[in-house]
UniProtKB/TrEMBL annotation:
It holds the Pfam family NAD_binding_1. This is FAD-binding FR-type domain-containing protein. InterPro entries: FAD-bd_FR_type (IPR017927), FNR_nucleotide-bd (IPR039261), OxRdtase_FAD/NAD-bd (IPR001433), Riboflavin_synthase-like_b-brl (IPR017938). It comes from the Eukaryota. It comes from Urochloa decumbens. Residues 44-155 form the FAD-binding FR-type domain. CDD domains: FNR_like.
Length: 286
């Protein structure tokens, strides 16, 4: 069910943290905002894997859920060690490879259990390789890198944070899902606030997961730049909404994680640094 207004349970932080914040995606060079900037060298080894499922992820079908069956590629599955990592794709007749953030969580450290698939949130831009991926059917084969790439979110840098501020726009929510559904939330026991900005509710992915994320302790603040008249939640852009709410009085206890449009990440970073947060405590996955 789509949200119609800001859920009553959505708050910035737990009540005793309001004094901390009450007063001050990775942007991609590739076609999809969830795709990473192309690394210096494309993979030298590729694997072939079947598509497990493809379905719309949003009401307007601008984003798609794509899942790959990797049960035959144990080494590839094992290479997924951190939320925010990417998998290279090489699609038939595509002029270049694309690098998509993995939406499914990595296995917990020390766990012997491993999922047999990777999930992705893919923006369907007509005429691009990502659109071709969205047009595939279960059983179709694709070529992917033999291992994941990128360092992901280096959450060890904010292991001592009492409050974690997470910012995502558009399909930049993909690696944030990986983070939220990994062991990060439970292990760090922090107050986590997720500012998630899109144009409207028809473009907001993962709404069906919000209740579960909030149960885990994540406070979700949806921000719509072009909502309909029924929307009673936050309006505008993530960086503007946060600027109105924030007042970081103890920067050493705060960590931040950013993924989405370049303007958002740059403006949020400037606001956080101006309030005393070290850049070392502001994480991206690129």
């Amino acid at each position: 069910m789509l949200l119609r207004s800001a859920p009553r349970r959505l708050h910035l932080l737990r009540p005793h943290h309001h004094r901390l914040l009450s007063a001050a995606a990775l942007a991609s060079a590739a076609p999809s905002p969830a795709a990473a900037p192309v690394p210096p060298q494309a993979p030298t080894e590729w694997a072939e894997a079947p598509v497990a499922s493809v379905r719309p992820a949003t009401a307007d079908a601008s984003l798609y859920h794509v899942s790959l069956d990797l049960s035959a590629h144990g080494g590839l599955l094992a290479s997924h060690a951190a939320a925010g990592q990417f998998l290279p794709f090489r699609l038939p007749a595509a002029p270049y490879s694309i690098f998509l953030a993995i939406a499914s969580p990595p296995p917990a450290p020390g766990s012997s259990a491993s999922a047999a698939a990777f999930d992705f949130l893919v923006k369907r831009l007509p005429g691009t390789p990502s659109a071709r991926l969205c047009d595939l059917r279960p059983g179709d084969l694709v070529h992917v890198g033999a291992s994941v790439v990128g360092r992901g979110f280096d959450v060890a840098r904010i292991a001592d944070a009492r409050d974690v501020l997470v910012f995502a726009t558009g399909s930049g929510i993909s690696p944030i899902r990986s983070l939220v559904e990994s062991s990060f939330v439970e292990d760090h026991k922090a107050g986590i606030s997720l500012f998630y900005g899109v144009r409207n509710l028809q473009r907001m992915a993962y709404q069906e997961r919000f209740n579960d994320w909030e149960t885990k302790g994540v406070k979700i603040i949806p921000v719509l730049s072009r909502p309909d008249s029924q929307w009673t939640g936050e309006r505008g852009y993530v960086q503007n909404v946060f600027s109105r709410m924030k007042n970081i009085v103890n920067p050493s206890s705060v960590g931040a994680i950013l993924c989405g449009h370049k303007q958002m990440t740059e403006e949020i970073t400037r606001v956080l640094v101006a309030d005393g947060l070290s850049k070392d405590r502001i994480l991206t996955n690129f």
